């Protein structure tokens, strides 16, 4: 086995936190090597050291047997290392083609920008991964999934012989993920070495040659795909076994109707949507990216001013009511992009938690700090949120703990209906199990929940009923006992009609 990458006793600390503790492992040339572990295990840090974003405090990085110490990402790219980041990085006001050409704009005569050549090059980069994306579209007008696909195309387009993928499918549908896996297979066949960071077991078993596990910044071990099982990987990741989670709420009889939607339509991407939700019921919404799932959530919550139709919430018409009124009546939304839509990352955990409930914490014109701290204590303990302090910046928390803060602020608001858009995107298996259990517990207590997820097993496992969307419409409603992944995929792709 020819070694392409070797990490030799790599140690990295951030302040007083040890992110990596003498990690040693090697990756063969032309293999797809998966890195797994809970949030905070050190996977992304190891990838960022390889990509030149971080420098190790001690230890050595070797590429093809030669020691490397990159001063920054530019040096890593020059050495043939590219990275697809978990945190999306792009210029929102530039077009797709302009983003893909950043730093290497094609010139006519060495002076003038050639838009024709730039667009043609962008189309070639997107051909295998996202041919449906129009290269002259502005990035801010694309869905989150398409942002991810553009970033993948940009990394692959550098011609790197080492590529790091950090949670690349966190925003992708099953179809788009399948395209990515075919692309990775093609790259691997051409001798490109892939470092693949993911929490998703099925995709790791689909594409990885070997799987290495980190826990609390230390290297636990490496298994060949053939000898690895889901239970063995989970036990290595968290030091204990997690039994498959089975929800309790479907056995309970749903309560009174709390939401009735009729003829909901918006230019944003949903047409003639009608359904209802009862107390204690979880309604799953499945569909490919662009099917209109998130657009329905935005229209219900009041973010889409162009939406038309009837929305009866707890017996009252709210279609023309502002967002503030909907929140006070008990409607809540956990958006698909927690970092851009659900949190103010530069602000503290305390501020992020308190913003939606300031009217409940206020004493005259001022926030009652004692009441605020008592409320924080209750929900941080209830959701097992881990933070250095309430005044730590939200950006310092792991993805799972950030998501728990987004959930906690709405629970403190005593929401009656919770809309969850991709609630477990980009979080580890332990945090995911905790959020699944919380969703089930909330439904058992009588809360109505709308669950939007690209992970079909999540929708299948938690939902009482599943609405399938395609091209902005509901094309089928499937009861839990009759629901299978194959049937949902067929409805989502238009192969069958309900």
Report what the structure shows.
It is a single chain. By secondary structure, this protein is α/β, with parallel strands linked by helices. It has 18 helices and 24 strands. It folds into three domains: 3-238, Rossmann fold (3-Layer(aba) Sandwich); 242-330 and 415-498, Rossmann fold, CATH 3.40.50; 346-412, no CATH class. Helices cover 33% and strands 27% of the residues.
Quickly describe the structure:
The protein folds into three domains: 3-238, 3-Layer(aba) Sandwich (Rossmann fold), CATH 3.40.50; 242-330 and 415-498, P-loop containing nucleotide triphosphate hydrolases (Rossmann fold), CATH 3.40.50.300; 346-412, no CATH class. Helix content is 33%, strand content 27%.
Q: What is the topological layout?
A:
Layout: E1 3-14, E2 17-28, E3 32-36, H1 43-50, E4 58-63, E5 66-68, H2 73-78, E6 81-84, H3 96-100, E7 107-108, E8 112-113, H4 115-126, H5 144-156, E9 162-166, H6 174-189, E10 193-197, H7 201-207, E11 210-215, E12 218-224, H8 230-238, E13 257-266, E14 270-278, E15 282-287, H9 293-301, E16 308-313, E17 316-317, H10 323-329, E18 331-334, H11 338-342, H12 349-354, H13 358-361, E19 362-363, E20 366-367, H14 369-382, H15 399-411, E21 417-421, H16 429-444, E22 448-452, H17 456-462, E23 465-470, E24 473-479, H18 485-493
Parallel strand pairs: 3-10, 3-11, 6-9, 9-10, 15-22, 15-23, 18-21, 21-22
Antiparallel strand pairs: 1-2, 1-4, 4-5, 7-8, 11-12, 13-14, 13-16, 16-17, 19-20, 23-24
């Amino acid at each position: 086995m020819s070694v392409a990458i070797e990490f030799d006793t790599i140690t990295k600390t951030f302040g007083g936190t040890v992110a990596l503790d003498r990690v040693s492992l090697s990756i063969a040339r032309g293999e797809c090597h998966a890195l797994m572990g809970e949030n905070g295990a050190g996977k992304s840090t190891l990838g960022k050291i390889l990509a030149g974003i971080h420098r190790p405090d001690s230890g050595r990085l070797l590429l093809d047997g030669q020691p490397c110490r990159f001063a920054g990402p530019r040096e890593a790219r020059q050495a043939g290392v590219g990275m697809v980041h978990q945190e999306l990085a792009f210029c929102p006001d530039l077009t797709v083609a302009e983003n893909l050409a950043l730093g290497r704009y094609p010139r006519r005569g060495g002076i003038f920008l050639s838009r024709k050549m730039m667009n043609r090059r962008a189309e070639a980069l997107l051909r295998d991964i996202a041919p449906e994306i129009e290269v002259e579209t502005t990035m801010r007008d694309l869905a989150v999934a398409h942002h991810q696909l553009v970033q993948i195309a940009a990394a692959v387009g550098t011609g790197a012989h080492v590529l790091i993928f950090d949670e690349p499918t966190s925003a992708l549908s099953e179809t788009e993920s399948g395209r990515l896996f075919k692309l990775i297979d093609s790259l691997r066949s051409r001798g490109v070495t892939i470092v693949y960071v993911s929490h998703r077991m099925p995709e790791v078993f689909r594409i990885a040659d070997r799987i290495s596990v980190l826990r609390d910044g230390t290297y636990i071990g490496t298994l060949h795909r053939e000898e690895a099982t889901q239970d063995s990987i989970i036990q290595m990741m968290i030091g204990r076994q997690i039994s498959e989670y089975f929800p309790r709420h479907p056995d309970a009889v749903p309560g009174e109707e709390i939401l009735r939607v009729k003829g909901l339509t918006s230019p944003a991407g949903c047409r003639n949507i009608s359904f209802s939700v009862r107390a204690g019921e979880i309604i799953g919404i499945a569909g490919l990216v662009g099917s209109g799932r998130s657009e329905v959530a935005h229209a219900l919550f009041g973010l889409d001013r162009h939406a038309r139709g009837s929305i009866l919430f707890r017996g009252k018409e709210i279609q023309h009511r502002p967002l503030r009124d909907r929140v006070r009546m008990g409607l809540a939304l956990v958006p698909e992009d927690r970092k851009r839509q659900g949190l103010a990352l530069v602000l503290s955990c305390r501020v992020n938690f308190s913003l939606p409930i300031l009217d409940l914490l206020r004493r005259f014109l001022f926030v009652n700090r004692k009441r605020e701290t008592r409320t924080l204590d209750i929900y941080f303990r209830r959701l097992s949120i881990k933070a250095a302090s309430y005044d730590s910046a939200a950006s310092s928390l792991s993805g799972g703990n950030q998501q728990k803060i987004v959930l906690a602020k709405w629970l403190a608001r005593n929401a009656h209906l919770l809309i969850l858009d991709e609630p477990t995107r980009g979080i580890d298996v332990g945090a995911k199990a905790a959020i699944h259990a919380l969703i089930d517990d909330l439904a058992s207590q009588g809360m109505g929940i709308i669950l939007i997820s690209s992970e079909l097993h999540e929708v299948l496992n938690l939902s009482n009923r599943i609405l399938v969307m395609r091209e902005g419409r509901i094309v089928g409603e499937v009861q839990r006992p009759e629901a299978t992944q194959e049937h949902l995929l067929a409805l989502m792709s238009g192969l069958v009609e309900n």
